[in-house]
């Protein structure tokens, strides 16, 4: 029962978000189209009896009722069509926004690693428009049931056996439920193939992959894979659809038989003189109303089951993405530092551990560099430090407080990060830099651009107001290094972060540009030292990391060396070996 109430609340909430006025209008026109058959049936009896007996008052009352019912029958569909079109337009956006909130609004991202989450997300994206279409369901469903009950009671009044008429709906209802279960199972079965097709599509149309695809002539192969995936998905869906239509149709076949039977019963009564002509008209109209209400209930039952499926996906996703925020406020400054204590972590249900019990202390006020081979666990460490993932065991302590107990939103506002896999926001330059600035003062964008060494912005047609991205008519495309400088500026725009993370942010920059950038970042780190700001740098370039206060070497997720450049060189272990190798490469 609770889940039905939650589903009704979800639908009404969606309707309200679409727009209260439109929602109310849509509800009224939909309801009026549903009540008109009953109204017609009730008005037709006095009209017919009045005509037979020549009673004017009955003719007028019945005539007015029939006129209203017919007006509703004629006018309601016009309003219904108009309101439906407007609703669909807006409902699409609103449902999409809800899905987006689930996908992007969650404070952690660990659920994105799980195929079951992605499959449900995909299914919900497909079902979301239907959610929007069904916002009136919580009002319509009880109305139709009431119509069925009233019509049945009136029919039973005329002839008790007619009360059995709605019973034909029961097997049909059961069959339609079976049909929906089939459809729903096929949705989830087809979801992985659909997901593959979508990924192939996204890769094929992304400008960033165009070069690789064309040079290697991968287009045909991708197309073939796409076709295979969509064919598979269609095969699964169509087989289920065919069976579910057959099952549904078997239920529908019962209705005409029942209707004809009801008419015969009434006509027999009329022939025996036990009912009036008005009663016959009423019975014919009521039987029509009962059959139409039962049909509609079947239809609605299908919709209700589909909506329940969509709502179930929605609530499941919301549950997965949910987290209980810690209550401890984030301190304004760090005095001790951030510590990873025996942290273990692996992705998804993977048994391999990217962090197999890692201990690491990042002292407050220092610049720390992490080096290590590909796959050593550096980026994973960053994801744990930013609270994107929870450790399987162990703890992250921020000035001694477990990160899980801290208010994660406040914590994130004190974290600033630049990544190797940065986002290329197709906004104006100023917007693309200011997007993470927490309503930064306007002068922070040019200052951040300056610190990131993004001098090229002055040369752009409209400076910081230039639109980025080739999908816009006046959009400008940047080089990989230029995009990266904007991403670095974005990391620098946030005022006074306590943890500044730079995860290979300069991979697309040449060594000189990178060295100049790190001189500026070091100055920035010194400026934040009084607040205990930690600057964490991940880089494969040893020339860059050597000036850090502390260098940490990570191997297979474990810290194997730590110290200053001089200390690690003197130790003559992995760091010294790799540094010497790289230095020799530059000579
Ligand atoms: N999203 C993911 N899903 C599953 N496994 C992952 C994921 N990301 C990383 N891994 C695995 O975790 C391990 C550590 O990867 P991580 O990206 O942290 O290494 P890294 O040191 O940052 O490497 P690189 O220098 O190449 O960026 C690797 O074995 C990798 O295969």
TrEMBL record:
Subcellular location(s) of the protein: Cell membrane
- Pfam families registered for this protein in UniProt: ABC_tran
The molecular function GO annotations come to: ATP binding
Q: Where are the transmembrane segments?
A: 21-44, 59-80, 160-176, 245-268, 280-298
Keywords, alphabetical: ATP-binding, Membrane, Nucleotide-binding, Transmembrane, Transmembrane helix
Give the membrane topology.
Multi-pass membrane protein
| Superkingdom of origin organism | Bacteria
Q: Does the keyword Membrane apply?
A: yes
Chain ranges of the ABC transporter domain: 338-581
Q: Where is the ABC transmembrane type-1 domain?
A: 145-306
- What protein name is recorded for this chain? ABC transporter ATP-binding protein
